[in-house]
Every structure is written in structure tokens, then in C-alpha cells.
TrEMBL record:
<dbReference type="GO" id="GO:0020037">
    <property type="term" value="F:heme binding"/>
</dbReference>
<dbReference type="GO" id="GO:0004497">
    <property type="term" value="F:monooxygenase activity"/>
</dbReference>
<dbReference type="GO" id="GO:0016705">
    <property type="term" value="F:oxidoreductase activity, acting on paired donors, with incorporation or reduction of molecular oxygen"/>
</dbReference>
<dbReference type="InterPro" id="IPR036396">
    <property type="entry name" value="Cyt_P450_sf"/>
</dbReference>
<keyword id="KW-0472">Membrane</keyword>
<protein>
    <recommendedName>
        <fullName>Cytochrome P450</fullName>
    </recommendedName>
</protein>
<keyword id="KW-1133">Transmembrane helix</keyword>
<dbReference type="Pfam" id="PF00067">
    <property type="entry name" value="p450"/>
</dbReference>
<feature type="transmembrane region" description="Helical">
    <location>
        <begin position="6"/>
        <end position="23"/>
    </location>
</feature>
<keyword id="KW-0812">Transmembrane</keyword>
<dbReference type="GO" id="GO:0005506">
    <property type="term" value="F:iron ion binding"/>
</dbReference>
<dbReference type="InterPro" id="IPR001128">
    <property type="entry name" value="Cyt_P450"/>
</dbReference>
Length: 279
């Protein structure tokens, strides 16, 4: 059977890409020693997309060393760095050793999935105009994270700590076990939103035994963030997954991202109403 011109072009393209990847690997291996790679493509794929992915990577770090490659069918290799000092060196660089810092903007761009394409300061894409748009926005945000401003929020923190002890008392009275890690996440969400926007999302209240079954704004935020981050993790490893329109998980994650955006807009609207410009 004769192959058409389209088939021949396709075969030539695939061959060229394969040759490029092969030569890239060979040249790189001659210039420097590549770190070890995880074994078993199917096993790696299954482990990476499972809830046990962090434990899998930890096991690989113990077996292969603090730096290793994850075997995945991708053009660009994925490296895992399990050494905090080395990770900081890569992210921040070292002028004395002529090492440039990593470009974190491209990495943060992956989080645009969470914001449904809305511009954020984290990806250096803002709505401010002018040559210094991102720097202007960042400068305007800086006072919110100053020590002086945090000290002003101590009464809010004290109120939330009182609520925390009340919830712990509920668990003690009921004789029920409590997940401390989850409890601290609930406390953090409540404190951050209360101190920044003056809004009590009642996250802790819904976490306690008396509040079980209540769906507060804080609980919605946590649920939406969990769904979105899980799907974001899958998309980072498998970019084409974003187009899996038949997947219920993909639809649920998109719905969660849209819900997060609605909550953020509501909080911003209420905050602006309570704090008019120049008021």
C-alpha cells in the first residue's frame, strides 16, 4: 500500500523529534552526569497521580538520592530536589558563584488554572498600566504584609485562638479524635480572611463537632482549593488532561475554580464597599 504525502510528512516529523530527543540526551550526558531516574514508566505514572504521590517521591529520594529525574513521557525532564539547601540555591541563586536564580514566573504560571485565567501578581500579570505595572502592584500590596500591619491584627488572632480552644473543648467533651493538621489549616483560613478582609468565614465553627454538616464560606474555600490543586497537579504532569472533556474530575475541578473566583469577587466587593477609596 502506497503511503500518502501526509503520512510521509508525519513519519518524517516523528522521526525528527525522536532523533532530536535522543541526541539531546546523549549530548547532555557527555557534558555532565545526569541524576538517576525512577524505574518503571507505568509504575511512576500510577504513583504520581495518586494521593500517595508525596510518599512515593520521598521513597525515591531515599533510594536514588536528593536529586533524581521522574520518568514520564514528556519532552522536558522533571527533576525532583529533596534537599532544602540545594533547592534554595537553585531558586535564589548565588552571586558569589555566578549562579543565576531560577525564573519562578514560568513555574507560577501553572497556577493560572486555579484562577481560571485571571491575572495575578504571582505570575507577574496584573491589571495595572504602565511600564512598572507589576512592580507598582507589588509595592501597593507590601504594607499588608508588614510587621506593623500584622501587629494591628493581634486582636483578631486572639479571637480566633479563643475559638480554636472552644473547638478543642468540643472534641474533648465528645471524646472524638481530631486531625491537628486539618485543624490548623482551618485556623489559618479563618485568621487570614478575618485579618485581611474583616470577614468571618466560620471555618473553625464548621470543623468542630457541633458544626458538622454546616457548609460555611470557609469550608467551601477549602473544598474548592483541594479539588483545584489535585487537578492542577495532574495537569502539570499531563498538560493534555486539561482537554479531557469526558472526565468528571476535570469538570469538578473547573467548577471548583469558578466557585473560588466567585467567592473572591464577593469578598473584594464587600471589602471595597466597607473601605471606599479616599475614605
Amino acid at each position: 500500500m502506497m503511503l500518502s504525502r501526509v503520512h510521509l510528512v508525519g513519519i518524517a516529523g516523528i522521526t525528527a523529534i525522536s532523533l532530536f530527543l535522543y541526541l539531546k540526551e546523549r549530548i547532555a550526558s557527555r557534558n555532565y552526569r545526569l541524576p538517576p531516574t525512577t524505574k518503571g514508566l507505568l509504575k511512576t505514572l500510577k504513583s504520581i497521580v495518586s494521593p500517595q504521590a508525596p510518599m512515593y517521591l520521598l521513597e525515591q529520594a531515599r533510594s536514588l538520592g536528593p536529586v533524581f529525574r521522574v520518568q514520564l513521557p514528556m519532552v522536558n525532564d522533571i527533576y525532583v530536589i529533596a534537599d532544602s539547601k540545594l533547592a534554595r540555591l537553585i531558586l535564589e541563586g548565588d552571586d558569589s558563584r555566578c549562579l543565576r536564580s531560577a525564573d519562578k514566573t514560568n513555574d507560577y504560571a501553572k497556577f493560572e488554572y486555579l484562577t481560571v485565567g485571571i491575572k495575578t501578581v504571582f505570575t507577574k500579570k496584573t491589571y495595572a498600566q504602565g511600564p512598572g505595572d507589576w512592580f507598582t502592584t507589588r509595592k501597593a500590596m507590601a504594607p499588608s504584609f508588614s510587621t506593623k500591619n500584622l501587629l494591628k491584627q493581634l486582636p483578631v488572632l486572639q479571637a480566633k485562638l479563643d475559638e480554636l480552644f472552644q473547638v478543642l473543648g468540643e472534641f474533648a467533651t465528645a471524646g472524638a479524635a481530631v486531625d491537628i493538621a486539618e485543624l490548623m489549616v482551618n485556623l489559618s483560613v479563618d485568621f487570614i480572611l478575618a485579618s485581611m478582609f474583616g470577614v468571618d468565614c466560620r471555618t473553625l465553627e464548621a470543623f468542630g463537632p457541633r458544626g458538622q454538616g454546616k457548609e460555611t464560606v470557609g469550608q467551601r474555600i477549602l473544598k474548592d482549593v483541594e479539588l483545584s490543586i489535585k487537578e492542577l497537579n495532574n495537569i502539570v504532569y499531563f498538560p493534555l488532561r486539561e482537554w479531557h472533556f469526558w472526565s468528571a474530575d476535570v469538570h469538578n475541578a473547573r467548577r471548583a475554580s469558578r466557585d473560588l473566583l466567585r467567592i473572591a469577587k464577593d469578598l473584594l466587593r464587600d471589602y471595597r464597599a466597607a473601605h471606599p477609596a479616599g475614605g
